[in-house]
Specification:
The complex is a heterodimer of chains A (137) and B (153). Chain A is mostly helical and 137 residues long. Chain A contains seven helices and no strands. In chain B, helix 6 packs antiparallel against helix 8. Classes of the chains: A mainly alpha (137), B mainly alpha (153).
């Protein structure tokens, strides 16, 4: 009898996690639909992000901390929900406005990653516009 | 030799007493906070409890001061942390924030809690009840992410 219970428990857990897993999957799909529809990244903006930001802020980045705070891959692949995307866009505007990104320490090592004034403005204007659109302003 | 030891001890005691006299302002405590997050928004009880035990000492007006927070030099460090914590995010003033600022705070909560940045390890050392398990962290982050989303719905 005891053995039977022992055998049944993992089976039950497996079933429950399967059900939960299928639910979360469904939610993620919802987000993908929303994201692709609303977030528009023009080529010139994408080039800046790819070249100057993705080194630290992407799925592939080594640093866990910067990736945790901002992951550009998640902006477009459904990893972030709508509210999250809006806030991340606002954070881009905020950080660029304060000239905080890329960080000075990083630029000391890789001076070529510095954003030019034009690049910073382009990226920041794009983020502001996208965020306003998503907020329905 | 013995006298010398006594002298040093005496000097140390005098310094310690003088440190106590040095003025420093204790952060104020307000019990009734109508704009508090937990008062104004529906926060699940389990999450509210975690926030109160792990965050509210530095991120609200309802700080619970431990006995050693009255003794210099510890009190300077503690007061400084509380003032800085309230400046960054004060749950007691939650409802005075704009929607965008709330979103910003919720996103920071989520990433800092998941990353283990908060609560500060020095604080947890003295407040074992504030220690968050992996499950606690995931629950708080999930709540913050949900609430962030609900702001823009």
């Amino acid at each position: 009898m005891k053995d039977k219970i022992k055998f049944a428990i993992p089976l039950i857990i497996l079933c429950i996690s399967f059900v939960l897993f299928s639910f979360t999957k469904e939610n993620q799909n919802d987000y993908i639909a929303v994201t692709i529809e609303t977030l528009d990244i023009p080529e010139n903006v994408k080039a800046i992000i790819d070249n100057k930001c993705m080194g630290c802020h992407s799925d592939e980045a080594k640093s866990g901390k910067s990736k945790m705070k901002m992951n550009f891959d998640k902006l477009t692949n459904g990893g972030y929900s709508t509210g999250k995307i809006i806030n991340k866009l606002d954070k881009i505007t905020k950080m660029l406005g304060k000239d905080k990104m890329p960080p000075q320490k990083f630029l000391d090592k890789y001076p070529d990653k510095k954003l030019t004034k034009d690049e910073s403005k382009l990226l920041s204007d794009w983020a502001t516009t996208q965020s306003s659109t998503m907020k329905g302003e | 030799m013995k006298n010398k030891k006594k002298l040093i001890l005496g000097i140390l005691i005098i310094i310690f007493v003088l440190l106590q006299i040095y003025p420093s302002e204790k952060p104020s405590v307000t019990i009734d906070n109508p704009n508090d997050l937990i008062v104004t928004d529906k926060v699940p009880e389990a999450i509210a409890l975690k926030l109160k035990t792990a965050c509210y000492d530095c991120h609200s007006n309802k700080t619970k001061f431990p006995w050693y927070s009255n003794i210099a030099p510890m009190k300077w460090l503690i007061y400084d942390h509380i003032n800085h914590g309230r400046e960054e995010l004060n749950f007691s003033e939650w409802n005075t924030l704009t929607i965008d600022d709330k979103a910003d705070a919720l996103d920071d909560i989520s990433s800092m809690i998941l990353d283990g940045d908060m609560p500060l390890s020095g604080y947890v050392k003295f407040h074992s009840e504030a220690k968050l398990s992996e499950a606690d962290r995931e629950a708080i982050a999930a709540w913050a992410d949900d609430m962030l989303d609900s702001l823009y719905e």
